[in-house]
């Protein structure tokens, strides 16, 4: 019976994007280190039944978490005063940074946080969950880096947090953290650096000779940082670290409740019960790879990034947005006779997944590539298929969307539409659900979604998610 169950699971998994081999350039991070998956799985199994709810009952998890936090702090300029928490992922780390900032200022009736327009959507989720107003500040239209002067000007008496990225997800560029943190410190406001993606790889890039602006806890005014272990620490999904410069800064993050007849609830994260499995797997992987192992993986990744950037520059019709500092590359069309959404479909037909990103502000529609160590050695194949995909997209031409359809979409009020009207829109966009929830080619769908306002696109995709989980 066990074999039958596992065979069924394997059959289901066969329909997923590949998580190894470097052909899925979003969502997953592959070290390509032999045996690492097996080590992580064994460690996960050893601790999967252990409950992180009470570290006094399961002191092994306390040791593992302190070890992992110590490694992160050492990598990111921490001091003896630095403290941290292992969370379930980057979004949870960012949520906790926001709630800690909010709850540290009970005197502020309408707390706000200042975000560059390129800050991760996790901060908008935090604003939604915790009633913190998000003050959006435009970034440089060419470099896509945050504008320190504009960020400073946006800080007021209601500001409880200022955010910078190292790097930003959309374009892979590091914000000018030194100037932003200085402005926050001058106003007596916390400054969080979202290094969920870069925190475990940029320090090694620097050691390999890459010139990077300061971005870690050595920067005066930086009060907290997030770094994901399931990204460039190459650990299994479900682990991130939130660092605070001191225990006093972390304290508002904690939640305690004794006003009920059960046990006194005490939580450092948004979760109560937490499996020890992901933490144990992360501890095992980071211990196994060690400093030299991560340096070698960073060197392989850096080499792949450079080859891919050089290759894209030679593909007629493509250009890279900004000047990436890290491992993330955003590629757009530099002429109007083809559609990048069609390029994404063509790449998928060649067994590559690149992530479409919609236009926003001065950032045009583009394709996002997350480069990992697993891409080292396969750069030529990726670039050849990307070149072929552009040629095929040019031959197909831009995805047609009639002007009257665009006008009708833009006139819709997402807050006034009924569920039935949303269902009609989903069906018209090719997202009607059923046995095959998504069409084989997504370019026509993405072209229609691109014509929608961000608010309408959010509502449409929320309704679509509801269809998927029905």
Automatic annotation (TrEMBL):
Residue intervals passing through the bilayer: none
Gene3D superfamilies: Aspartate Aminotransferase, domain 1, Type I PLP-dependent aspartate aminotransferase-like (Major domain)
InterPro entries: GrpII_AminoAcid_Decarb (IPR050477), PyrdxlP-dep_de-COase (IPR002129), PyrdxlP-dep_Trfase (IPR015424), PyrdxlP-dep_Trfase_major (IPR015421), PyrdxlP-dep_Trfase_small (IPR015422)
Cofactor requirement: pyridoxal 5'-phosphate
Keywords: Lyase, Pyridoxal phosphate
Modified residues (N6-(pyridoxal phosphate)lysine): 231
GO molecular function annotations of the record: aromatic-L-amino-acid decarboxylase activity; pyridoxal phosphate binding
One of the GO BP terms on file: carboxylic acid metabolic process
Signal peptide bounds: none
Keyword Transmembrane helix (UniProt): no
Transcription regulation found in the keyword field: no
Family according to the record: Belongs to the group II decarboxylase family. Sphingosine-1-phosphate lyase subfamily.
UniProt-listed PANTHER family: PTHR42735, SPHINGOSINE-1-PHOSPHATE LYASE 1
The protein's name: Glutamate/tyrosine decarboxylase-like PLP-dependent enzyme
């Amino acid at each position: 019976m066990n074999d039958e169950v596992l065979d069924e699971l394997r059959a289901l998994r066969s329909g997923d994007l590949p998580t190894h081999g470097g052909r899925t350039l979003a969502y997953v991070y592959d070290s390509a280190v032999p045996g690492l998956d097996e080590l992580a799985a064994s460690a996960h199994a050893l601790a999967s039944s252990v409950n992180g709810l009470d570290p006094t009952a399961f002191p092994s998890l306390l040791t593992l978490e302190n070890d992992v936090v110590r490694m992160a702090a050492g990598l990111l300029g921490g001091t003896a005063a630095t403290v941290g928490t292992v969370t379930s992922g980057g979004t949870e780390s960012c949520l906790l940074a926001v709630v800690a900032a909010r709850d540290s200022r009970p005197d502020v009736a309408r707390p706000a946080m200042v975000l560059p327009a390129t800050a991760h959507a996790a901060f908008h989720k935090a604003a939604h969950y915790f009633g913190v107003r998000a003050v959006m500040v435009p970034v440089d239209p060419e470099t896509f880096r945050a504008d320190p002067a504009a960020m400073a000007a946006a800080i007021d008496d209601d500001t409880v947090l200022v955010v910078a990225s190292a790097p930003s997800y959309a374009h892979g560029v590091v914000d000018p953290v030194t100037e932003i943190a200085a402005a926050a410190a001058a106003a007596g406001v916390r400054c969080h650096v979202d290094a969920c993606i870069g925190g475990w790889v940029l320090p090694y890039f620097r050691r390999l000779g890459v010139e990077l602006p300061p971005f870690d806890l050595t920067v005066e005014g930086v009060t907290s940082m997030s770094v994901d272990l399931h990204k460039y620490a190459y650990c299994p999904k479900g682990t991130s670290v939130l660092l605070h410069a001191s225990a006093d800064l972390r304290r508002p993050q904690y939640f305690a409740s004794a006003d009920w007849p059960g046990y006194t609830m005490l939580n450092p994260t948004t979760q109560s019960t937490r499996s020890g499995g992901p933490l144990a797997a992360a501890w095992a992987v980071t211990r196994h790879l060690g400093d030299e192992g991560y340096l070698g993986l960073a060197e392989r990744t850096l080499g792949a990034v450079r080859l891919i950037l050089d290759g894209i520059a030679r593909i007629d019709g493509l250009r890279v947005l900004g000047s990436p500092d890290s491992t993330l590359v955003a590629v757009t069309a530099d002429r109007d006779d083809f559609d990048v959404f069609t390029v994404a479909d063509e790449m998928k037909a060649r067994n590559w997944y690149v992530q479409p990103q919609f236009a926003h502000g001065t950032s045009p529609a583009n394709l996002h590539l997350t480069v990992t160590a697993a891409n080292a050695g396969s750069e030529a194949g990726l670039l050849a298929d990307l070149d072929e995909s552009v040629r095929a997209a040019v031959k197909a031409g831009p995805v047609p969307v009639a002007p009257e359809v665009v006008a009708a979409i833009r006139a819709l009020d997402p807050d006034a539409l009924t569920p039935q009207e949303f269902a009609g829109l989903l069906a018209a966009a090719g997202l009607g659900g059923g046995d095959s929830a998504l069409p084989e080619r997504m370019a026509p769908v993405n072209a229609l979604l691109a014509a929608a306002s961000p608010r309408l696109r959010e509502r449409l995709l929320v309704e679509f998610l509801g269809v998927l989980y029905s």
